[in-house]
Amino acid sequence: MASGTQTSTEYIQHHLTNLVFGMHHDGHWGFAHNAQEATEMGFWAIHVDTMMWSIILAAVFLWLFKRAAGKITMEAPSGFQNFVEMCVDFINNQVKDGFHGRNPLIAPLALTIFAWVFLMNLMDLLPVDLIPYIVQKIFGAHAYQKIVPSTDPNATLGMALGVFILMIFYGIKVKGIGFVKELTLQPFSSKNPVVQTIFVPINLFLELVSLIAKPFSLGLRLFGNMYAGEMIFILIAIMYSAGLVLGVIAGALQLGWAIFHILVITLQAFIFMVLTIVYLSMAHEDH
């Protein structure tokens, strides 16, 4: 929490700064020691904490579900097996309702997205100072640590980019030349070939904007909601340094926001999954 040697602004900035590895201005590679150095490293810098926690949480998801699959039984199933089966049934129902094509990839992809994004979001419920404090004690004050990958636009837009690539791939695979026609012959059309030729660049521009906006909004929606939630936790944590009375109030506020945030965490994972299903379904619909 913010102390006498650290202002509230410095406290907030520290918690919102990633652990960045990249090239310094003198040409050597290393970790950034402050936000300015991280910015100067440019596009090719790596957010190590985002990458690390994303991989760890993906491994946790794979291990848990593999463990459940390996111990599956029809007689007296465990509570965890029931939970996993409930998740799988829930995802299958969402795919059946939202996806109108035939593709064995969609259901596993939807399950992976929901579970992975949910685990990323769930990290937001850990005390904001816990892991950063431990990391700083081990590696020093410059060792920044953001433990919620979904508060990093690089992670959310990266996942959205993956969805976008699948949209383009299946759009071309399923529709062929029809995919090009969708981009050039609507929404404006005419039986006059000259007028239709004039409409082609206009249609292409409008359809490309609409196409690109889907994954862009998909990633920004998740980032914006989780970033705002993390910011509220940080602002509440600042109150602990303002005395006993405000500290007690902060504890009540933190508990209340954490309970409400469970809904946000689950809802954002669900929305990301459902929109992915819908976008891929649109890519498979050949009119």
Can you offer a commentary on this structure?
The protein is built from 10 helices and 3 strands; from the N terminus they run H-E-E-H-E-H-H-H-H-H-H-H-H. The protein has helices at 8-15, 35-40, 48-70, 79-98, 106-122, 130-139, 153-175, 177-184, 193-238, 244-284, and strands at 20-23, 29-31, 46-47. It has a 3-stranded antiparallel β-sheet with strand order 2-1-3. Strand 1 and strand 2 (29-31) form a beta hairpin. It starts with 7 loop residues before the first helix and ends with a helix.
**Structural class, please?**
mainly alpha
**Count the helices. How many?**
10
Strand order of the largest sheet: 2-1-3
Distance between the termini: 57 Å
Described by the principal axes of the CA atoms, the overall outline is: globular
List low-confidence stretches. none
Number of separate strands: 3
Radius of gyration: 23 Å
Order of helices and strands: HEEHEHHHHHHHH
| Strand composition percent | under 5%
User: How would you characterize the largest beta sheet?
Assistant: 3 strands, antiparallel
Percentage of residues assigned to helices = over 70%
**What would the average pLDDT be, to the nearest integer?**
88
Task: Lay out the secondary structure.
Blueprint: H1 8-15, E1 20-23, E2 29-31, H2 35-40, E3 46-47, H3 48-70, H4 79-98, H5 106-122, H6 130-139, H7 153-175, H8 177-184, H9 193-238, H10 244-284
Antiparallel strand pairs: 1-2, 1-3
Helix pairs in contact: 1-9, 3-5, 4-5, 5-10, 7-8, 7-9, 7-10, 9-10
